[in-house]
From TrEMBL:
It comes from Phocaeicola coprocola. This is Crossover junction endodeoxyribonuclease RuvC. The RuvA-RuvB-RuvC complex processes Holliday junction (HJ) DNA during genetic recombination and DNA repair. Endonuclease that resolves HJ intermediates. Cleaves cruciform DNA by making single-stranded nicks across the HJ at symmetrical positions within the homologous arms, yielding a 5'-phosphate and a 3'-hydroxyl group; requires a central core of homology in the junction. The consensus cleavage sequence is 5'-(A/T)TT(C/G)-3'. Cleavage occurs on the 3'-side of the TT dinucleotide at the point of strand exchange. The active site is at 14, 74, 149. SUPFAM superfamilies: Ribonuclease H-like. It catalyses: Endonucleolytic cleavage at a junction such as a reciprocal single-stranded crossover between two homologous DNA duplexes (Holliday junction). The gene is ruvC. It is found in: Cytoplasm. Its cofactor is Mg(2+). The lineage of its organism: Bacteria, Pseudomonadati, Bacteroidota, Bacteroidia, Bacteroidales. GO terms for biological process: DNA recombination; DNA repair.
Length: 189
């Protein structure tokens, strides 16, 4: 059960070194609605360090425009190309710092968790995620845009919205003996 909040703005980011997606979700009560959906196009910037500066400035600009309360960001997935992973990790780190410099709490979600939260299938395609978000949040086709990075970012924000009302789970038990020791009132003698 999602706990109602008066109003909360969640910024979702799908980190990228060529195209970085962002999605802004406004939650009023228990009702989410899309405020913005877009991308930061980094393809023209060839210097990797200037690219990071550009990411920082653009994420700061998005934050200034929408004043999010929280940031939900997709964690990089483990790929075979180590150089790509390092570049993606840097881009993600810069986006996180941009939020932290504005005292915005950050939550990171694995791609599998985001896909599972939205489609029920951790192996869903980008198209399936985009289609499900479009239907659930009533996004007009004209606002979908050509890049799935924006809907991936919105997916991170929506996943965060779904997590808002979930109570923290107690630590798992290592064995039945551990369970019994921690819950003596639940054992019949």
């Amino acid at each position: 059960m999602i706990q109602p909040v008066k109003e909360k703005i969640i910024l979702g980011i799908d980190p990228g070194t060529n195209i970085m997606g962002y999605g802004v979700l406004k939650v009023t009560g228990v009702k989410p609605q899309v405020v913005a959906l877009g991308v930061i196009d980094l393809r023209k910037c060839t210097d990797p360090y200037l690219k990071l500066k550009h990411i920082y400035e653009r994420v700061q600009g998005v934050i200034s425009s929408y004043l999010p309360d929280e940031l939900a960001i997709e964690a990089p997935f483990f790929g075979k190309n180590v150089q790509s992973m390092l570049k993606l990790g840097r881009a993600q780190g810069v986006a996180i710092v941009a939020a932290l410099c504005r005292d915005i709490p950050v939550t990171e979600y694995a791609p599998l968790k985001i896909k599972m939260a939205i489609t029920g299938n951790g192996q869903a395609s980008k198209e399936q995620v985009a289609d499900m978000l479009k239907r659930m949040l009533h996004i007009p086709e004209s606002e979908m845009g050509p890049f799935m990075d924006a809907t991936d970012a919105l997916g991170a924000a929506y996943c965060h919205y779904l997590q808002m009302g979930r109570p923290a789970m107690p630590k798992a038990y290592s064995s039945w003996k551990d369970y019994i020791q921690k819950n003596p009132d639940k054992v019949k003698k």
